[in-house]
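Entry for the shared binder. Reason: the reviewer on the internal report wants the predicted structure included alongside the sequence.
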Amino acid sequence: MNLRYQSVLYNPCFHGILNLIITSNRQRKYTVHFYYSFPLNHVSLISFILILANRLTVLFQTLMINKIFFSNYKSFKSKQEIDLKPITILIGKNSSGKSAISKLVPLLSDSLSGNFSPVMKWENYGIKLGLSNKDLVYNRAITSILDFSVFSEEEELQISIGVDRKDKANIYKWVYNGKSVDVAKTNFKGFKAHGINFKKLNVNFDYIGPFREIPRPSYSTTFENYNKIGITGSNAYPILIQSFNSLDGLLNSVSNWYEKNFEGWRIDVIEITAPEPSYQVVFSNKSISQINIVNVGQGMNQALPLIVRTYMPDEQEVRIVMEEPETHLHPAAHGNLAQRFVDSYIENSNRKYLIETHSQNFVLRMRRMVAEKKLKKEDLAIYYVDFVEDTSESTLKLIPVYDDGSVEWWPDGIFTETLTETRAIKDAQLKDKPNVD
């Protein structure tokens, strides 16, 4: 990160504006304005800037892995590659391996943290990849070696792992930035070798599964700070209640989105003082007032944690992983949901997404936003995950998107059901018509 400053004084040494012009490693420029009203001579100004620069570094650099290679992982036998763009989409049929890729993020995050002695775990932050370490290896074969290579802007880690008959994971090869270690003589915690500190090889993530929590009729006061929405989206409700009390604008933003995209319905929080203090999350429109969220359709409450997540403040880069965000929503709403995720990234580039979807409208809206120049093609990656019956393994293939929203290629049988069924109906109608001589 490069940084230069300008100080514009109203009254010399006592108050003025400090303009910080910051250039990130990705050559993005930011100007940050600070107003100060205290004596600030040249020496103290330099000290102030140095302290400030250290704190701003985390805001303007990529702090996470951005590319992953893997092989012999779950149903993926051959070497696969995924570039994690600001918005990365996974499509494919059921049981093709999409969820294995989504859950790879928490696995890597946990192991790269070095917070535990085992090399890896099959359950990470409550997200399960199986019931044993063998379940992480292709065909559960203890003779197979699980390979990972993870990259950030400045670092690369290559690691090979085997699982023995007692289900213990062992490191067989470990290479960091081109330098290997003698694994037999090295102590490891997770993927971290003793004495080695990763700079950006980590993953700050928030994982939201395909089934969101059914809301409760009422909630009590909570003073916990939330920076994750949670696997089932359960934190969405206390976050909304805290926003109601703090007037920070998040609740209003979520409500405005619902009003625009769900036929005028707004969301609000009401406080109940008796018999005990509690809060209710309610919906209303111009004609109907305050329906408790438990009494509205599944689509509206299943989408709520996702929308709340898109408005949460993120001061550090975070990979938001979502499985099937379109669950219980009418297809007409899928595109609007996709657009909200794009808008969320544009509003705050710290929010990065990895989304697994079965929705054609969702993917089409993403491509449309590229065509409309609202999303750069470089910021979107669409991957097709396919299970090949002949070889009994999954593959991961990039579908390049062009500037006009078109794609270089498209997999057979994906999102073609409407045309197939329409043709079948037409064929049936033709068969039923009597022959006319």
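Summary line for the report: Residues 1-15, 24-30, 57-61 have pLDDT under 50 and may be disordered.
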